[in-house]
Predict the 3D structure of the following.
Amino acid sequence: MGRLLSVNVGLPRDTTWQGRTVYTGIWKTPVKGPRTVRRLNIEGDGQGDLAGHGGEHRAVLVYQTDSYRYWQNQLGRSDFACGQFGENFTVDGLSDAEVCIGDRYRIGQALFEVTQPRVTCYRLGIRMNVPDMPALLVKHGRPGFYLRVLEEGAVEAGDEIVLVVAGPERMSVSEIDALLYMPGHRRDRLQSALRIPALSAGWRQSFEALLKQERKDGALTGNAGLTGAPGPAPAWQGFRSFRVSGKVRESSNVTSLMLEPTDGQPITAALPGQFVVLRLGATPALALMRSYSLSGEPGSSFFRVSVKREAHGAASSYINDELRVGDTVQVSAARGGFTLQPGHTPVVLLSAGIGVTPVLAMLHALAAEESRREIWWLYGARNGSEHPFAGETRELLGALPRHHSQICYSAPSPEDRLHVDFDARGHLDVRAIEQLNLPRDADFYICGPTSFMSDLCAGLASLGVAGDRIHTEIFGAGPSMTPGIAASPRQPPHVPAGPAGSGPMVSFARSGLNVRWASSFQSLLELAEACDVPVRWSCRTGVCHNCETGLVAGNVSYRPEPIDAPGDGNLLICCSRPEGDVVIDL
């Protein structure tokens, strides 16, 4: 039997951190007397980031005095007060090793159910003034846990905590936490966890992703439970030399390169929709590195990439003006998770501008297999001169018996013929797709400018298309995801202030920035922030389900995928430093 020692509440507030304003409810203070516990909260309490905290399955956070004593010893501190770890209930007893998911406890007048371990975020590091605190809680196996409120009622300090019902499967908070974050995701234990009805949706999805993850040599690779299932492992590490065997102008601003391996060895077939990284230039130190989607038929003996010339693009200018047939470039293996899924459902390929390239590879694959699926090809361009692959796509669609096509020109030229070169005047937007009566059960593959994709995703959702049917790929640096931090004007990516580093080369592929690593940075994430490169993260230490930085160490480039980081578990590279040259797909 345990006891409730303190009830702690606090409303979100602004706090200054690293020169930025963070809106957070991490500060909790003890209250005297009874407090009513509702389905979503305790009276007088609130959360700043409802995407990561709070809600029905995370209504009340519990932390134990035994862990208080443990951290006082570990950190050499004696200044802790109840609520120090952002918890609502400070309790005596109820260790993470003994409390099980699905256990039900009576505290005062209220009835609670244990739903998940705590998922710590960077705000705990702010509260504790220990930046690594979120990762330390996972490493040391002391996360604490969340309660769901089954019966509302009053609670107060001093109430006994009585176990009413023991949860099924008898899986403790500690075991569930380690099952996600630590190596060795035993399949039988994952299956046991999924049989617990009380387990919250986020953890359930993480364990389902781990179960679906492909095995390699009998062991799970990476940690799909944190960021979703990764694509297949790259066919080779690092770069191989490829010769430019062809160079074709596809439109007024798009040029394709045909690339063949110089060693004469075959290349592993890419999945339709994947991308490669090109290293362009005479020496690695001076090289430009960019990621480009493959635009040709998967499985061919060469790679085709198609590059749009940008007004101030160093790599696109080099490709257009300097690169010649016969020249050599360095090419990574194909990778990426934006790929055509097998099945029999309808397929909608939706793109604009140079975003056509990955979905064109998908169209090639569908035509090669003589697909009987219903296929929609929807594309938007400014006019005919900026419409690449027009003839190629018409030929591919002609080979598909159940195809539909809609081409929109936003500013057609006098030479462009309506119903011949294009089908409608205007942008390919939500209003346009509403008129097409697209099948709601289709898989939608969308690629183009960020605003184009966000508008279409929202529009498709409003039309009743399920979220797991909508697949997207962003070209160029995406927007930042920094939960709780107030928005502020951002300048374009730039070399960080201060003396130049002397370490490995860090290349931000989408932002076109090459920077030498400096020991003053604690992580690749810190370097990205110093360069004003848009990044996506939540916990800053790789231990939360929301963390998605897109950072991976090694002489290759990845889009956001998990890796096996050194240390106690599968963490994302946002907490790592480079050991060699690094390409980051941001």
